[in-house]
């Protein structure tokens, strides 16, 4: 644990958390759904009507999609969260990748989250959150499409007064809650007063510098 924490709190190092853990979870979920659907197809209950068979077909389709997605994310992990001196880069699959500079973070905290995802109640403990202004959220993070936001958006972006808490779900990342909080807080404390500015270099181009 000491070696791991030593790496994540070295603020000059870039730490990347990939989709391997989340992919494995989706892969297992998909395999279970496919197995359950296959068993029902083999048993062919006599009292099954058209509606029941449609539900079996839907379960098989969802299971197959989940298994394929999970295998792809597990076998070829993609960066989901990157912490660097420049800021916190959050990848929202199929939607966008957001860079939150450290100077835009108003605070770091750990909270318990309760909510609903696709109708199911969820309770998440000790989740690291970074606070950004609602103006920053509206400009850089928010997605107008309900379809793209998906059923889990509200447990990842949580309003708090005039701020929005951006949840960094350690359950979906290859890190413990303690490791993730330490990595985020160390870099925020080190770089929160560093702003990226631009300067003209001619011909309409600008160069970013710290």
Quick structural summary:
It is built from six helices and ten strands, in the order H-E-H-H-E-E-E-E-E-H-H-E-E-H-E-E. The chain has 210 residues and is an alpha+beta fold. The strands form three sheets. A four-stranded antiparallel sheet has the order 1-2-3-4. Strands 5-6-8-7 form a four-stranded antiparallel sheet. It has a two-stranded antiparallel sheet with strand order 9-10.
Secondary structure elements and their pairing?
Layout: H1 2-8, E1 15-18, H2 20-43, H3 50-75, E2 79-84, E3 87-92, E4 96-100, E5 107-117, E6 120-133, H4 134-141, H5 146-149, E7 157-160, E8 163-168, H6 177-191, E9 197-202, E10 205-209
Antiparallel strand pairs: 1-2, 2-3, 3-4, 5-6, 6-8, 7-8, 9-10
Helix pairs in contact: 2-3
Overall description:
The protein is of the alpha+beta class and 210 residues long. The protein folds into two domains: 2-18 and 81-199, no CATH class; 22-75. 40% of the residues lie in helices and 32% in strands. It contains six helices and ten strands; from the N terminus they run αβααβββββααββαββ. It has helices at 2-8, 20-43, 50-75, 134-141, 146-149, 177-191, and strands at residues 15-18, 79-84, 87-92, 96-100, 107-117, 120-133, 157-160, 163-168, 197-202, 205-209. The strands form three sheets. Strands 1-2-3-4 form a four-stranded antiparallel beta sheet. Strand 7 (157-160) and strand 8 (163-168) form a beta hairpin. Helix 2 (20-43) packs antiparallel against helix 3 (50-75). The longest helix is centred in the N-terminal third of the chain and has 26 residues, at 50-75. The chain is elongated, with a radius of gyration of 21 Å.
